[in-house]
Amino acid sequence: MSTKLHFYNTITRKKEEFIPANPPFVGMYVCGPTVYGDAHLGHARSAITFDIVFRYLKHLGFKVRYVRNITDVGHLENDADHGEDKVAKKARLEQLEPMEVVQYYKDRYHKDMDALNNNRPSIEPQASGHIIEQIAMTQKILDNGFAYVSNGSVYFDVEKYARSHHYGKLSGRKIEDLQSNTRDLDGQDEKRSSLDFALWKKASPEHIMRWPSPWSDGFPGWHIECSVMSSKYLGETFDIHGGGMDLLFPHHECEIAQSVGSNGEEPVRYWLHNNMITLNGQKMAKSLGNTIMLHQFFNGDHELLEQAYDPLTIRFFILQAHYRSTLDFGNEPLQAAQKGYTRLNNALAAARSLNLNWGSDSADTKNRIDGWETNLADAMNDDLNTALTIASLFDMASYINALKNNQEKLIPSKAEFDRVVSLFESYFEDVLGLGGAVVSDQSAQKLDDVMKVLLEIRSTAKSNKDYATSDAIRDQLKAIGVTVMDGKDGADWQFDA
Ligand code: ZN
């Protein structure tokens, strides 16, 4: 089969046509959050990137099983093999059960991701619910000779694995460089080499998240959960694995080694990675004081923010860049995005209520619409170029506005214009997920009713020749970004772009 859809595959380092192993089914696994704090822009970009993959594959007619995990155990401080568990530390500081911390931040993560209009994954498995499977895979890797037990912990033997397999194939790192760049072990370390990573860790007496295993009372290493949960729900080899570029090494490199080390199979056919986000040109970091949480963007409650931003403005802004480019956030680009997004929303609203003396079908109009249809599909098929997709939507918005303002000579037939609207809706709402949620439907209806009342008062004032009142209403609305348009069927209004 041919799909025309091309992804940049991180492991082959080139764009390749996407051909699923078992069409129409597609399996996709994405590394989700470690739930010990609120979600920030990095979480938003990764979730939105793979929501687009999910939406577009469904748009193309595939049946997608999208699995995104919740890391609730085994992710230690500094992404290392020692130190406190991130969830357990939060629980200790807040005097809560670890699972209370997990539930709290999982709920908040969902709330933020829902606000960004991301679809929920098909399955959202938690690491702590798959301890038995993680012990079983660790045992298999031990049986195959690619791991060893040391003082109750189990470590993956990277150097031994690298003798028969390519460790570093995803990240492009060379084992010799990794060996020379790593610190010498101090003799006290349980590992044979500092390249080795934990599959199972023996818990220290104060460690509260622990389970029995053949080797010790302990907990799984960070990387093994993803190998286990992806193979459990998608099979030993599946189509797409996604995540942020920061996870490429060591996390995803280790996932490959674990899967190959346990069942001999390459786990993933297409590896997709989204790039990172900076804020005003700087990397975001707690130490720089510039980590802004998503809910702070939504309510404007941060000293670096000049205003609150609608979650869909954030989504639109993220989609204006290609997912493999870096993206710099700041007030100015966000305000520009807000204008652009409003323009597209207004165009769609105008298109839905447009009523003209429709013309008849013409080759010119047909070519024009065919052109947009091709451009929209080509852009998405070219490694999900959402920036170009949005550019085509702006073209269509200009056409809609020209028709509305009587600036377009060739009036389309009703059927032709319906095609424009459904094409616009299909990409703006279904594929890009940018539809409608500026205000909830209910408040949108209320707002419409309130505006009707206001415009009627203005119309009465006008018929009474009370122009001071009617002009004041128009001017004051203009000042808050609402334009009143007088037409032959009465007045209408819209938000300014
Ligand atoms: Zn993962």
Q: How would you describe this protein?
A:
There is one protein chain. With 497 residues, the protein is α/β, with parallel strands linked by helices. The chain folds into three domains: 8-274, HUPs (Rossmann fold, 3-Layer(aba) Sandwich); 279-431, Orthogonal Bundle (Isoleucyl-tRNA Synthetase, Domain 1), CATH 1.10.730; 441-495, no CATH class. 46% of the residues lie in helices and 14% in strands. It has helices at residues 41-59, 86-94, 98-115, 131-143, 158-164, 175-181, 224-234, 248-263, 294-299, 311-319, 331-353, 363-381, 386-404, 414-431, 441-463, 467-479, and strands at residues 6-9, 14-17, 25-30, 63-68, 147-150, 153-156, 197-202, 218-220, 238-244, 268-274, 277-279, 282-283, 327-329, 482-487, 490-495. Helix 12 (363-381) runs antiparallel to helix 13 and helix 13 (386-404) runs antiparallel to helix 14 (414-431). It binds zinc ion. Residues 31, 226, 251 line the site of zinc ion.
Short description:
The chain has helices at 41-59, 86-94, 98-115, 131-143, 158-164, 175-181, 224-234, 248-263, 294-299, 311-319, 331-353, 363-381, 386-404, 414-431, 441-463, 467-479; strands spanning 6-9, 14-17, 25-30, 63-68, 147-150, 153-156, 197-202, 218-220, 238-244, 268-274, 277-279, 282-283, 327-329, 482-487, 490-495. It is an alpha/beta fold. A four-stranded parallel β-sheet has the order 4-3-9-10, sandwiched between helices.
